[in-house]
Amino acid sequence: GWEGVKFPAGTDSPAVLAGHPSLHRHRERAGKEGQVLHRSKRGWVWNQFFVIEEYTGPDPVLVGRLHSDVDSGKGRCKYILSGEGAGTIFVIDDKTGNIHATKTLDREEQAQYTLTAQAVDRDTNKPLEPPSEFIVKVQDINDNPPEFLHRPYFARVPEMSNVGTSVMQVTATDADDPTYGNSARLVYSILQGQPYFSVESQTGIIRTALPNMDREARQEYDVVIQAKDMGGHMGGLSGTTEVKITLTDVNDNPPKFPQSVYTMSVLEDKVSGEEVGRVKAKDPDQGENGLVSYRLTEGDGLGVFELTTDSQTREAVIKLKKMVDYETKRTYMLRIEGSNPHVDPRFTAWGPYRDEATVKIMVEDADEPPVFVAPSYNFEVEENAPAGTQVGRVHAKDTDVANNPVRYMIPRYTDVEQFFSVNSEDGMITTTRPLDREAQAWHNISVAAAEIGGHHQDTKVRVNIRVKDVNDNAPEFATNNEILMCEAITPGKVIETVSAVDKDEMAHRQHFTFSLAPEIAHNHNFSLKDNRDSTASVHVLRKGFSRLTQDVYFLPVEISDNGLPSLSSTQTLTVRVCSCDSRDTILSCNVEPYVLPAGLSTGALIAILACIVILLAIVVLFVALRRQKKEPLILFEEEDIRENIITYDDEGGGEEDTEAFDIATLQNPDGANSFLPRKDMKPELQGALRPGPGSTRGHSVDVDDFIKSRIAEADSDPTAPPYDSIQIYGYEGRDSVAGSLSSLESVTTESDLDYDYLQSWGPRFKRLADLYGTKDYPMNDTDDGEDS
């Protein structure tokens, strides 16, 4: 350590030790010539003190010594130390001024300490020197290894990068003093990752060291970088970190088909749009660099097949564009090209980035349904032709190589009424019944053809059958055959022109003739003139028609057509005589009486039914009201007042209540005539005691009569309170087949009953036989026969 010293007065030597100036140096200079320069007297003079960090010796470290010029060495001067760490880290000998460090110091925790020294009189503690500050610096040693800021590091670099391409920079720090020695001077080196990568020793920049590193061969690299202090020399401390480097993809690989020739097959019965097969060109690149687009370049199947790309699997999908036929063409050839749509211009010299493959498609024979030689058939048949008449023949053939025979049938849903049948072998269609053109002029049916022994596949063809007309319908009047004629009509006047229609199909060649029936051909009232244009005129021959004499005339008219053979029919014209005015306007005819229906109209029927329903409702209501009026009378007649129970929230005394009624009265019915007043409640007004109805004295008194008499007395007693008192009587009732088992009567009648027969009733009556089997049985149980 350094020791503080005192320079003598007048000394010009500067107080500088180890490059540090003294703490106090004062000069006075004259500002004018002739003045004498004076130097002030210096007291404390010492250097900065240094102490090495991390000292682990057994004794405290001597930091330095303080000394004042007022210290004569006699022990009067006392040194005092204050400031950072004084008394704990740093201690001073108050006699000698020696400063020691008592603890191990760490520069990284605190690099220097500022302390204050003072010399005082030991006896009086008066300052001998003014206090002065000094600094104790902790001298660094290499005790901290380098540390990397982040660990691990992740970096990415494109594959095929040139040598020296920067990957990333790693940085380490050292807590030691960078201004002192080489403790914080770091050097970087690579411990793992050669020969692929290198690191700059001073900057820590990692660069590629090999050309043409291929991601498809190896994608990830684990590189270990070391940072060492002391400039990398021996004895320096070091730290490492791991750097994970990933090669990113570039388009450096062209697509490639695994096979040069692909063979596929398709059944001839496949429809357009169905998939035939798939091919895929492999590209080891990723993302857009690995995309492959496909197209058909040549081949005889360009018009038959089409190509699409599956967006999920990136496969080329070959589909049918048109149906194929095994019997026509059995083999197709296609040329497919796969190429990268995104090409990196840096690697175009490595190309071309495309590949081609050949696809052979074989058409397989399928069990196809037969094919009709015509797309549809049109036949004609005359109406009324007998059953079995041939209509026409349909023909289908099997186009498969096997050329199996064909069977025919008519689907029933196309010929519901089954007018036709078809020969299953030769396809001849015949009628099953005569046809009526007027009912149905056309029949549209289908005929199905299927191979015999095939897979039940059939094909259908449309057959249109026209029914040809024959003259099988006689003509008839075209309109209503009733004529209205005035009474005062002039003779020779035409009252009607009639025409006819025929259901047969005669078209423009159709012609009708008219004539009166032979039986009235010479009548004196009317005549018929054929106009030779398929119409006829009705003329009046006389006058003087009267409604009162005859109001209706009937004219049978024969109508004939020109068919082959000619058909005719007799139609009746009805001529009705009417009254007319002077302008021949019809005023009244006898039409209404004949037109009006004999029955009732719908409205009238509804009105009658409504009236009937209303009458029924009134009757039912009346009956219901009468029943409601009679019910109270019936109930009153059948009502028994004893069945009405009224609750007054009062409970009788039960068996224990001997005050309400004297049970001895029941045991002795002979004394029932004597009146006993009620004791359960004392009435406020004492009424005259009325004797009850007289009872027959003797042992023949009926308890039932006794109870009824007591009820009658209670009901007629005006002094009785308005509530019921339930009494318990040991009375079973009368008309019992078994008789009474009560012991009450046995006491009063004193009759000897023989119960020995109970012994023969079996073990179930053993207890009863023991009780009543002897004559000397006790009779103190008076409650055995009571009913509650």
From TrEMBL:
Query: Which ranges carry the Cadherin domain?
Result: 68-148, 149-257, 258-372, 373-477, 477-595
Predominant location category: membrane
Give its localization: Cell membrane
For this protein, the record's Gene3D superfamilies field holds: Cadherins, TCF3-CBD (Catenin binding domain)
Could you state one GO cellular component term attached to this entry? adherens junction
Does the record carry Metal-binding as a key word?
no
Coiled-coil spans are: none
Q: Which UniProt keywords apply?
A: Calcium, Cell adhesion, Membrane, Repeat, Transmembrane, Transmembrane helix
Protein name in the entry: Cadherin domain-containing protein
* Upper classification of the organism: Eukaryota, Metazoa, Chordata, Craniata, Vertebrata
